[in-house]
Design brief:
With 205 residues, this protein is an alpha/beta fold. It has helices at residues 2-27, 48-63, 81-87, 118-132, 146-156, 184-203; strands at residues 38-43, 67-75, 99-103, 136-142, 163-169. The N and C termini lie far apart (43 Å).
Length: 205
């Protein structure tokens, strides 16, 4: 019994150490290399602070001519682009004719669980791309969300002619030299993301 308990403790300690060392790196990824200008810069929604950083990065991509149009695929019906400009204090000018906003809809299937909306955003992005004959998109989201975002688009997309690049955003202070696991709030986000990633592998269809 003692050996079993000791072995269990050893496995638990190894799991915690592995999570602290590689947990964040496994979820994130390097920005994709663009072969040419993308049709869309797609911002996946998040909490207010993270969402602002994602939108600002996507606006910069459009301003830099790396993408033609900014897409916010699933947002509340009451929100328009001037609201985002005011709310997120967006100083770079981006005209409304270069912004598309998809709207929230009811679930199309009662069997789909709510997995944070990422799969719904992927499906909505594909729908908008088909409607507008877009062929490529840069997917912008937080770095810890990148692996699940890529999974969602891979599972949702059935068209081999559509090309997706992934652009991670680190919303944490770049001057903060502390390890990522020093921030308890961020550790919770990463741990929660592993649960959602597992659910994604099981349910994204």
């Amino acid at each position: 019994m003692y050996r079993w308990a000791l072995g269990g403790i050893g496995v638990a300690v190894a799991g915690v150490v592995g999570f602290l060392v590689w947990g964040n790196d496994f979820l994130s990824m390097e920005p994709g290399q663009l072969g040419e200008k993308a049709d869309l810069a797609v911002v996946l929604a998040g909490g207010p602070a993270e969402d602002r950083e994602r939108v600002l990065v996507a606006v910069d991509l459009v301003q830099a001519e790396e993408a033609r149009v900014l897409l916010l695929p699933v947002r509340h019906r009451a929100l328009d682009w001037p609201w985002f400009v005011r709310r997120y204090r967006i100083k770079a000018h981006l005209s409304e004719d270069r912004v598309l906003i998809g709207r929230e809809e009811g679930s199309t299937s009662e069997s789909w669980p709510d997995l944070g909306g990422t799969f719904a955003e992927a499906r909505k992005t594909l729908e908008i791309m088909r409607q507008n004959n877009f062929c490529s998109a840069i997917i912008v989201s937080s770095n810890y969300h990148m692996r699940r975002a890529r999974l969602a688009f891979e599972r949702a997309n059935q068209d081999p002619d559509l090309v997706f690049y992934f652009h991670p955003v680190d919303y944490r202070d770049p001057e903060d030299s502390d390890p990522w696991w020093w921030d308890g709030t961020y550790v919770t986000k990463v741990a929660d993301e592993y649960i959602k990633l597992l659910a994604g592998y099981l349910f994204y269809r």
